Amino acid sequence: MLINENMLVSEVLDMNPDITEIFIRHGLNCLGCPGSYNESLKEAADAHSVNLENLVKDLDNYLENKK
């Protein structure tokens, strides 16, 4: 598992520039959002009513397939 719920959104975005498509698919338009530098994935998911478990799973799968 590469991603955990305590990581900042900006940390995850920095892992791969194309990962924004996963955030957008989950209803999170995090790219360029000032909150991405202060919010964890859990905080962002909670604030936007996003299923955190599915988000983390999709982010992990995406990164694993990009190796």
How would you sum up this structure, described in words?
This protein has helices at 9-15, 20-25, 41-47, 52-65. With 67 residues, the protein is mainly α. The chain has a single domain (9-65), classed as Orthogonal Bundle (SP0561-like), CATH 1.10.3910. The two termini are 13 Å apart.
Describe the structure concisely for a colleague.
With 67 residues, the protein is mostly helical.
What's the SSE pattern? HHHH
The assigned structural class equals mainly alpha
Distance between the termini: 13 Å
The CATH class turns out to be Mainly Alpha
Largest sheet composition: none
Question: What characteristics describe this protein?
Answer:
67 residues; 51% helix; 0% strand; globular; 4 helices; single chain; mainly alpha; SP0561-like
Secondary structure elements and pairings:
Layout: H1 9-15, H2 20-25, H3 41-47, H4 52-65
